[in-house]
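anyone seen this seq b4? input:
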Amino acid sequence: MQNLLIASALILTLTSCSSIPNIIDINTSPVERPPLVVPDVDEFTTRPIEWTVVTPENQDQVFQDLNNEDIDVVLYAITDDGYKNLSLNMADIIKLVKQQKSIIAAYEKYNNEEEAE
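predicted toks r here
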């Protein structure tokens, strides 16, 4: 009886390996990329800033004018080197924005060329 079970198991094992394999049919075709959807960038508009240069010679007049106009007297001051650095920082920001614009333009050109193909 035990030999019959072993023989049956062996026959089942051998016949399962000899079955015809399923043929897998693979079809490939290019898939179109979906268009890139990005939100519009907010438009930047500067707010007006009034600059007043305060020197030891005109400081009393500047404070008096501010008091007469009922404006709180609060002054932010920077040195001439600080103003130079502020200007250079703004120039760096403008340069960075221009670089980003050129990168975006390159992406737009790249995507438009693919759509034309």
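The longest helix spans residues 80-116. The radius of gyration is 39 Å. kinda curious what u guys think
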